[in-house]
Amino acid sequence: MLKKNIKVSLTILPFILYFCHQRWLSNSKALLNIGRSPFYRSVWNPGEASSEREGQCQALFKITSVYNEEETQHSSTRGSANVPAWYTDSEFVKMAGRRVKTFLDDISKRPEGPSTQDYKYLGSVLPRLLYYKDKEEPAPHRGRQSPNLSRKSDAVPVSRMKQPHTMQKDMSEVFIMDRFQTTEGVLPFIPCRVKKYTRRAIDACFKKRLEKKKQLSIFFLGDSKIRNMVIELVNTTSYFDYTISSKNETWPWAVYRTMLEEQDVRFSDFEATTESHPGLRFIFKFRRFWEWRDVDASDEVKILTEWAEGTQPVPDLLIAGYTSWMLYTIPQRLENDPNSPLDVLDLLMRVHEVVVPLLQRVAHRTRVLVHADTRLRPHSQAKKPGHRLAMNAVFQNFLEDWSEMMFRFFEKFGSGRITRRRRLVTRTVRLEGGLEHLVNMVEEITQGDRPSRGFDRMQSPPEEGAVKDYLRPDESGLWWWDTSLPINMATISECSDLHDRNFTQLPQYSEPVLRCEDHHHSGTATLNFEVHMLLNLICNTHLAVDRHFCCS
C-alpha cells in the first residue's frame, strides 16, 4: 500500500511543480508589465541618494553604488511581440542577473571603480541588434529595420549563429533592430524604465518647462563625442525647425547639417534655437581639454570658473565630456618636446585635478552630467594606415580606465583637501659664453584649504509642495554618466561579429547606426538611447508619466 501511495505521489508531483512554475511565471510577468526592471526591488544605499525616487533618477546615469544586493529580487524580463523570444528566455535573464550582481559586488570592493572589461560584461547582457535572413526564405520586411522579429524561422541574432564561417555563404540580409524595440526601455543595470519620447510628448515637455521659466538652456561642453550627442538631440527634434547660429552667421538646421563634414564647421561652436519654443537653447562649445602647460589658462577652465564663482549665469543642464584629445595629442606633444618631465598618465592627472573640482562647484548651482568616454573599436578602419596605427595605439582601454580612475579620485578628494596644482613652465638657464638653455620645470601652485571663493552652495531651497525638478542641484553633486557605456560596448561587440564573419562590405558595417569604421565614436543606436535618457531627466517630472519611469 505504501509503495502504491508513493507511486501515485510521484505521478502527481510533476503536475504540481508545473502548476506552481506557471503561477510564478505569470506573477513575474505581471510585475514586469508595469514597466519595472528585473532589479526594481533593490534597497537603496542612503549614502548615495536621499530617497528612492531621487536615487532612481541618478541611477539612470550612474551605475555604481546604487543597489544593496542582499534583498535584490530577480525576475524574468518582460515578454513582448517586439522583444525577441531568446531575450525573454529564463536562462538568459538569469545570466543577466548574475552579471549585474557580480559587477556590483566587485565594484563595491574595488575603490578604483569599474574597468572597460566590467562594462563589456554588462554590455553582453543586452539583446543584440543584428539579425540575419537566409536566402531560401522571403525577407520578413523590406527595410533594414525590422519592427517585429519574434519568429525564430524569420531571423535569429547574429551572436547566436552556430554554423562555422565556411557554411555561412547562404546569408543574404542583415537587419538592425532598434535598441528601444529590443528592450522597451528596460536595462538590467538601471532600476527604472526609460521612456521613449514621441514628438507630441517632447513638444508638451518643452512647453511646460517654458511656462514655468522663460528660458531653458542645455549646454554641451566637450569634444566630438559630445557634439554627436547634441546633433542627435537636434535631429530627434528637428521638426522644431531650428536656427543654428555659429561664427556670427545663421543657417536652418537642414542646411547646417550638410556642412558638418567640413572641418572648420565640425570643430566650431554653435547654438540651436527655435521660434516654436522661444527661450529653448541648445548650446555646444567644442573644447578639447588638452592644455598641458597651464590648464588654468585654457578657455574651458575659464568657462567653468565663471560658472563656479557666479560671475556668469549657469545653464539649466550641463553635459560635459573629455579625455580623447588629451590622449590623442600626447604623442605629438612629447615628440615636439622630448625633455618634458611629464609622462602620459601625469598629463591625464593634471587636467583632472583642475577640472573635476570645478565641475563639482558648478554642480552646486545646476545639474551636471559628466559623460564617460567611449571605447576603441578594435577593427575600425581609417583612410591612412599610419593614422589608424596611431589611433589604435593611443585610445587603449587601460588609458581610459586610468583617466576615469583619476576622475573618481578627484571627485572624492579634490574639493575638500588642500588644492595643490601644478603648471609646466620653461626656465632659461644661462651658460658660459653667452649661451642659453631652455629647461622645462613643474611649478606647484598651492591654494588655501578650500579651492577658491564661491565654493559654498548658492541654490535656493525648493518651494514646499512644488514638483521635484531633477535639473536642480542637490546633495548628490555632479553625476557620472556611465549607463550608456555598456550599450556602446554591445555595439562594439556587434561590429566585431560582422568583422569576424567577413561582413565588413555590408552597409550595416559602415552606416551611422553602428559606426563600425569609426575608431571611438558611438553610433546612433547608442546616441539615440542617450538622447531619450536626457529627455527622461528633463521631461518626466513635468509630464504625467508612470512613476515606474526614471526621474518621474
The radius of gyration computed from the alpha-carbon positions, rounded to a whole number of angstroms, is 26 Å
**Average pLDDT for all residues:** 75
Strands ordered across the widest β-sheet: 8-7-9-10-6-11-12-15
Main beta sheet = 8 strands, mixed
Q: Termini, distance in Å?
A: 63 Å
**DSSP helix fraction:** 25-40%
Low-confidence stretches are 13-19, 21-51, 65-84, 136-171, 448-460
Multimeric organization: single chain
Amount of beta strand: 5-15%
Structural class: alpha/beta
The number of helical segments is: 17
Q: How many extended strands? A: 15
Task: Label the overall shape.
Answer: globular
Provide an overview of this structure.
It is built from 17 helices and 15 strands. Among the domains are: 104 residues, no CATH class; 273 residues, no CATH class. It has an 8-stranded mixed β-sheet, with helices on both faces. A 3-stranded antiparallel β-sheet has the order 4-3-5, with no helix packed on it. Helix 4 packs across helix 15 and helix 7 packs across helix 17. By secondary structure, the chain is an alpha/beta fold. About 19% of the residues have low confidence. The longest helix has 31 residues. The radius of gyration is 26 Å and the shape is globular.
Brief digest:
This protein has helices at residues 2-32, 52-59, 90-109, 116-123, 179-183, 199-212, 224-236, 253-258, 263-266, 299-309, 324-336, 344-362, 385-394, 397-413, 485-500, 507-510, 524-539, and strands at residues 43-44, 67-68, 130-134, 156-157, 171-176, 216-222, 243-246, 249-252, 270-273, 280-286, 317-321, 367-371, 420-430, 436-446, 479-481. It is of the alpha/beta class.
